[in-house]
Amino acid sequence: MAVSTTKKVLVTRFDREPLSGFVNPQSYLLAEGLELLSQGGAVSIVPYDEIKLVCFVRDFHQGEPRKELRLFGTRPKMEGLWIRMRFRDGDAMDGMLANNLLTLDSYGFSVIPPDPGFQNQRVFVPKAALTGVQVLGVVGSPLRMRKTKPTPKEQLEMFDKPE
Question: Among 111, 98, 103, which residue's Cα sits nearest to residue 141?
Answer without folding.
Answer: 98
